[in-house]
Amino acid sequence: MDPFTISVADDVLDDLRSRLTRTRFTTPSAPGWTAGTDPAYLRELVAYWANDFDWRAAEARLNAYPQFRARGQHFVHLRRDASRPPVLLAHGWPSSFLEMLPLADLLDVDVVIPSLPGFLYSDLVDGPLTRAAIAEAFHTFMTDTLGYERYFAFGGDIGGAASGWLATMYPNEVAGLHVIHGPFPADFDASPITAAEQAFLDAEEQRDEWDSGYSWIMSTRPDTIAAALADSPAGLAAWIIDKYRDWSDCGGDLERRFDRDTLCTILTLYWATESIGTSFRQYLDYPQNAPRPTIPVPVAVTRSHEPPLDLFPRSIADRAASDIRQYSTPGRGGHFLAFEEPQLIADELSAFMRSVG
Fold first, then answer.
1. Chain segment 8-44, per-residue pLDDT in tens
2. Is 178 an active-site residue?
3. Which CATH code, of 3.40.50.12500, 3.40.50.1980, 3.30.2000.30, 3.40.50.1820, is assigned to 2-60+201-284?
4. Model confidence over 170-210: pLDDT tens digits?
5. 2-60+201-284 and 65-192+290-356 share one fold
6. The Epoxide hydrolase N-terminal domain covers which part of the protein (predicted)?
7. Is 283 among the catalytic positions?
8. Which fold has domain 65-192+290-356?
9. 110 exposed, middle or buried (CB, 10 Å; 0-12, 13-18, 19+)?
10. Which of these is catalytic: 121, 283, 305, 318?
């Protein structure tokens, strides 16, 4: 396990600023954000990123957290209380370990925050990047590298799904699972689908009709779009901030949840590591995921407030997990719930960990 410090070379930053100042902006196809990232807002953000954002200050803030790499895996490791099981905090896409830092600051146990394989400073795993493969990589460094015998897992999106596999594959070591996106069963064969379940499934299908374009291209032609995003920081920004605005509980005002320094920090991390293309790998490899068995460990769900997951009924989670101890619907905080409402998640996660022991 080697200590790790984020250090972006000056020539990388100079090249980034040069590209930003020479950005060619598109003509709007429709007003505002109705056709994707608003070109007018993007122009403002690009100007801020090029002229006002202080990466060195952001870099220093990130390096205040102890970071390491082991077996090609990057992670933050905060040591707080070795007498209690630690918690692993797993992010999703298009996010990074940065998402979990405000939550980690509020917890009183040991905290481990990995970068997903292929994201930022973590290498891809050998073979398909399935949820089970991510879980295996996480479990290896939690137990073999860090020496923890038992631990909790928390996550959302890809990180939540991988944590679900952790709980299924290693039930003796995973003390409990806390997710913001309720677990899904392998099938609905156990009992007839309820009206509430059908309403959610219908809403999910409707959402996919107008919000699945990004997923389809990353699943089928990832290298095509990655070529554009790896060469244009403005394009990278447009691709990422569209999701931060659309998926967060921001009411259409992106900066209500994420200030420009935060957005530019995320974007610079992706740009400097040239990892946007490898972050797509889990989309390309998604068909190789097997159906996950029922989750046997204690589970807590704090349901994110984002369409259509704000309609997700507990009964679907009950089909996927046999021991749900805690289920709440706070009605605020979207896809990046730990980032948007860190105190809320800290309170619920801490209560869950104390109740399980």
1. 999 999 999 999 999 999 999 999 999 999 999 999 9
2. no
3. 3.40.50.1820
4. 999 999 999 999 999 999 999 999 999 999 999 999 999 88
5. yes
6. 2-100
7. yes
8. Rossmann fold (3.40.50)
9. buried
10. 283
- How many Cβ atoms are within 10 Å of 271's Cβ, its own excluded? 25
Nearest residue to 100 (alpha-carbon basis) of 277, 310, 266, 283: 266
Catalytic residue selected from 91, 121, 139, 157: 157
Which of 132, 136, 138 has the alpha carbon at shortest distance from 115?
138
Residue spans of the domains in the chain: they are 2-60+201-284, 65-192+290-356
CA distances from 350 to 243, 324, 334, 336 (A): 29, 16, 20, 18
Q: What is the DSSP string of 173-215?
A: TEEEEEESS----S-S-SSPPPHHHHHHHHHHHHHHHHH-HHH
Residue that the structure tokens 């800290």 belong to: 346
Q: What is the pTM of this model?
A: 0.97
Say if residues 266 and 233 touch (Cβ distance below 8 Å): no
Query: What whole-number percentage of the chain has pLDDT above 70?
Result: 100
